[in-house]
Amino acid sequence: MTVLRKGYAQTCEQLIEELTSKDQPTNPEKIKFSGIGNYDVYNISAPFDDCGELVIAGRVESRESEQSNVFFFVERNGKWVPRENAPVLDLQDPFFTIIAGDLVLGGVQIFPHSTLEGQLGWRTVFYKGQSIASLKQFAKGPEGMKDLRLVELKSGNIGVLTRPQGEKGGRGKIGWTNISSLEELTIDVINEAPLFENQFIDEQWGGANEPHLLTNGFVGVLGHIASFDEEGNRHYYPMVFVIDPENGAFSDMELIATRNHFLPGPSKRKDLVDVVFSGGLVRKLDGTADLYAGISDAEAQKITIIDPFLQYER
């Protein structure tokens, strides 16, 4: 690993203080959606190519509800509109990757809880296909686990990022394992993935949102770290770290933005004002990157940052 870890769990407060001494994000911009009526679009993916056209997957939801769908949007005259004839998925918080040439798309599925009457459960589900039009579900994660992510490694293996909660992960910690093919992505493999040690304190939590294969074979992870304050308000911050898939070593986390770096806007509830949910990162040739994010569970924005993974590729 190019950067040694401090060896102790980092907190939101420490990471915010470190961010103040670094280059600050620029060019905040609201992403405008149209054609979906009086619904919010938030927790979007970064744009990705599908059949020669850039597409954003986004969580579409009423302000008063958490019953959501994932729509696929394309840009028309400066606004993103639902793509004609594209599927609509009963999911939250979409994400994508490319594995063995196939588009792999996932999200969070909500369903009646298996043991608690009247309550909801959730799991991460995965679809794959050569394009959005041919997506078919092929795998699902354990009940109660969000932030399950996949990345194709330089070796051809597949890296699996997990986020158990409860007895193993507390409020939510990140795990990592390797599999040789998508057929090996089983609930047992996911549940048994070792956790990164001393990454989060027990009172705070985090998860992976989008892994990137770097030029040297490391995996750059765009994720989030989160906490509650004394009033019960949630605070979510976009962060990054890097994994050496050969041995599981990982770097310290680094915050890349806070809510204040984005434009003012609405929030779904009062306790969600200070929420930035990392959607995706588009790395650019000029050494910067565009961060796409859900803001306050009510809208989507993007912002420009210094590419946080370049330092690990040098």
Structural commentary:
The chain has 314 residues and is mainly beta. It has one domain (12-313): Glycosyl hydrolase domain, family 43 (Tachylectin-2, Chain A), CATH 2.115.10.20. Helix content is 6%, strand content 45%. It is built from three helices and 21 strands. It has helices at residues 12-19, 187-192, 310-313, and strands at 26-30, 40-42, 48-50, 53-61, 68-76, 79-82, 92-99, 102-112, 120-129, 136-140, 149-152, 158-162, 175-179, 205-213, 219-228, 234-244, 249-250, 254-255, 274-283, 288-295, 299-306. The strands form four sheets. Strands 1, 14, 15, 16, 17, 18, 19, 20 and 21 form a nine-stranded mixed β-sheet that branches. Strands 2, 3, 4, 5 and 6 form a five-stranded antiparallel β-sheet that branches. The chain has a four-stranded antiparallel β-sheet with strand order 7-8-9-10, with no helix packed on it. The longest helix is centred in the first third of the chain and has 8 residues, at 12-19.
Annotate the secondary structure layout.
Elements: H1 12-19, E1 26-30, E2 40-42, E3 48-50, E4 53-61, E5 68-76, E6 79-82, E7 92-99, E8 102-112, E9 120-129, E10 136-140, E11 149-152, E12 158-162, E13 175-179, H2 187-192, E14 205-213, E15 219-228, E16 234-244, E17 249-250, E18 254-255, E19 274-283, E20 288-295, E21 299-306, H3 310-313
Keywords:
mainly beta, 6% helix, 9-stranded mixed β-sheet, 21 strands, 5-stranded antiparallel β-sheet, Tachylectin-2, Chain A, 314 residues
